[in-house]
């Protein structure tokens, strides 16, 4: 039996979905968790990134962008400590399939009103896509600017509306783009830097959520 499955989903392009998926996968590989990263996006952003020099640190990759994703994921996840699925940035049968198989769904949200509105569409897809299933999900603020009015406002708005949020966010840092030039993440190129610490913090929260869910379902 394999480890948990984490689906990264957003119906808004540019939310940081692929960046979050890659960063978490690399972080967990560095921690020795034997992750599998599945690129279920027809744009193949993960695969293209992995074709660059550092190849995302050599993590195990699988490309599967069709509605049979859930079945393939079940089989492949059996040999890995944790599986991360990067989904398309639009509503599709692929997205629904990835949501159906997930132990935890992460929804990246940029700190802007338009992105919050689109995030709500993602949540509706999450709730309506699989009947009789109560998903565990968390929103993750991305591309934030520490101390800015808009970042504080969006976080407060989501909390007041009852949307569950991770306490950690993914601030807007040039380290992500710089690492991407080499097919890497900040955890590989600058392991002692601020971006690497942000990623480790998000990964730690996710691990705690998965551990709690595992205990409750045992």
TrEMBL record:
It holds the Pfam family CbiA. SUPFAM superfamilies: P-loop containing nucleoside triphosphate hydrolases. Residues 6-184 form the CobQ/CobB/MinD/ParA nucleotide binding domain. InterPro entries: CobQ/CobB/MinD/ParA_Nub-bd_dom, DNA_Partitioning_ATPase, P-loop_NTPase. This is ParA family protein. It comes from Roseibium limicola.
């Amino acid at each position: 039996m394999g480890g948990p499955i984490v689906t990264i989903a957003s119906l808004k392009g540019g939310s940081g979905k692929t960046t979050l998926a890659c960063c978490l996968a690399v972080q967990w590989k560095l921690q020795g968790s034997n992750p599998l990263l599945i690129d279920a996006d027809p744009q193949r952003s993960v695969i293209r990134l992995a074709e660059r020099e550092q190849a995302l640190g050599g993590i195990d990759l699988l490309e599967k962008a069709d509605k049979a994703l859930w079945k393939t994921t079940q089989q492949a996840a059996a040999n890995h400590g944790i599986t991360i699925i990067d989904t398309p940035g639009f509503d599709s049968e692929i997205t629904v399939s990835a949501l159906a198989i997930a132990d935890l769904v992460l929804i990246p949200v940029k700190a802007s009103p338009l992105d919050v509105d689109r995030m709500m569409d993602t949540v509706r897809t999450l709730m309506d896509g699989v009947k009789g299933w109560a998903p565990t999900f968390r929103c993750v603020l991305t591309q934030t600017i520490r101390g800015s009015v808009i970042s504080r406002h969006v976080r407060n708005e989501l909390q007041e509306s009852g949307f569950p949020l991770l306490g950690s966010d993914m601030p807007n840092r040039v380290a992500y783009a710089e690492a991407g030039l080499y097919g890497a993440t900040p955890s590989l190129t600058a392991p002692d830097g601020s971006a690497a610490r942000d990623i480790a913090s998000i990964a730690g929260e996710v691990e705690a959520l998965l551990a709690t869910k595992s205990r409750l379902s045992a």
